[in-house]
Structure formats: structure tokens, C-alpha cells
UniProtKB/TrEMBL annotation:
GO molecular function, one term: hydrolase activity
UniProt entry keywords in alphabetical sequence: Hydrolase
Protein name: Alpha/beta hydrolase
Organism: Tomitella fengzijianii
Length: 232
């Protein structure tokens, strides 16, 4: 079984298009893409807990996550390492506290703008400063998330991610995908995770590749996870 966790402001539809091909190629017999709600991290943990229960005694789940979905996946795996077959961690945004990070600041600012100016005005502002493909994706997902969007953005902006020291304790294979030209998800963070984890591999892509086909995260992530699984 595989559980897919979207990034901040994204939704289950994007997570499915980006990561379900990887889960299928790795042998997952069922795939659950979780829709973010206002209690963002708690909701992701509940979904992972439920998947672990469905897997039964001794069953392990594959977790795929983007941005905060990746960070939450590692956090949960640190608590339940015997329930995780592997992790595809795409575009991790920071380690430890979010203070001063671009992604956390962007989430907090977006939440304030939506609360002050409304969703459609904020979408127009976002589109003005984004590549067309990203503007289209976020406009769609923000409208889907609706009333849950502001609270989930606020939750993401204050999330304390696993530190390199914590990641070093994880004895689960993790395939990491970094984006070399994404200022909100610095590729240095992906490499820091890879250096810290015991069983890891990292693959890098570009924003243009992601915009052309979200499933590039599957190709890159599944390949990295297979390499990580061969390490000890």
C-alpha cells in the first residue's frame, strides 16, 4: 500500500499525478492520495496511521510526499520505522525550525493575503509572479482546498521538520528528489537530507521538467529509492 502526501497549497490530484506512477512501479497494490485539510500535519499522520492498520501486523507501507508531505513522511517514519517500506521525499523545504526559510515565509504571506484580500485576488497576485504551469496548478488546487487553505498554510509555515541528526536515526530507504532551480525548495536541503540519512539517494530535476510533466517526480523518486534500498 502507498500513501501520497501533497505539498503546501497543493492537493491530492497533483500528488497522484506526480507520485502514483512511482508507487505503481514499486509494486503498491493500492494507493491513497491524501487531501490536505486545516489540521494539516495531524491529518497526514492520521492517514498514515490508518494505512498502517490496514496493512496489518508486519505490513509496511510506501510513503510518497512533496514538500511538507515529504517532511511529514519522515517524521512519521521516525516514530514507526517498522511500518515503512520506503519513502520518496520530493522537494523537502527545510530542516528543523522553519525560521527564515523561503517556503515558510511564502506560506505565511499567502495565508495573510487570502484572509485580507480574498482567494481570487490572491490567485491573481500569485499568477503574476509565477510560471504559467505553476499558476494554473495552484489556482486549481487553492480553489479545491477552499476553506481549509488558510489554516493549512498557517500550519505549514510553523512546522518544525526533522533535523539532520534525527534523519540520521532513520533506517528506512529514502529516495530524495531535489529541484535545482526552485528557491522555495532549495536543492541544498535535498542534499543535506541525503547526507544525513543512512540509506538514501538523491536525484535532481528542474522546474521546467516538473512543469512539463509532474510524473518526473515519479521517475526521479523511484530511481532514487531503488538505489537507496541497495545501500546498507
Amino acid at each position: 500500500m502507498a500513501v501520497l502526501l501533497p505539498g503546501t497549497g497543493s492537493d491530492a490530484d497533483f500528488a497522484r499525478r506526480a507520485l502514483a506512477p512511482a508507487a505503481e512501479s514499486l509494486g503498491a497494490r493500492s494507493i491513497d492520495a491524501v487531501e490536505p485539510r486545516s489540521a494539516l500535519v495531524d491529518g497526514y499522520h492520521r492517514a498514515l496511521n490508518e494505512a498502517a492498520r490496514e496493512a496489518g501486523d508486519g505490513g509496511r507501507i510506501l510513503i510518497g510526499g512533496v514538500s511538507i508531505g515529504a517532511m511529514t513522511a519522515v517524521q512519521w517514519a521516525l516514530r514507526s520505522p517498522d511500518r515503512v517500506a520506503g519513502i520518496i521525499a520530493a522537494m523537502p523545504a527545510w530542516c528543523g525550525r522553519p525560521d527564515g526559510t523561503a517556503a515558510a515565509a511564502s506560506a505565511a504571506l499567502t495565508a495573510r493575503r487570502i484572509a485580507a484580500d480574498g482567494l481570487e485576488t490572491t490567485i491573481a497576485q500569485m499568477r503574476a509572479g509565477s510560471p504559467r504551469w505553476l499558476g494554473d496548478e495552484l489556482a486549481r488546487s487553492w480553489r479545491v482546498l477552499g476553506a481549509d487553505l488558510v489554516d493549512s498554510m498557517r500550519a505549514a509555515s510553523g512546522y518544525v521538520a526533522p533535523t539532520p541528526t534525527e534523519i540520521a536515526a532513520l533506517d528506512v530507504p529514502i529516495g530524495i528528489v531535489g529541484v535545482v532551480d526552485d528557491p522555495l525548495h532549495p536543492v541544498d536541503v535535498a542534499h543535506a537530507w541525503a547526507r544525513a540519512a543512512r540509506r538514501s539517494a538523491v536525484t535532481t530535476i528542474t522546474l521546467d521538467e516538473l512543469g512539463a510533466d509532474p510524473s518526473v517526480l515519479s521517475t526521479a523518486g523511484a530511481g532514487a529509492l531503488r538505489r537507496a534500498a541497495r545501500t546498507r
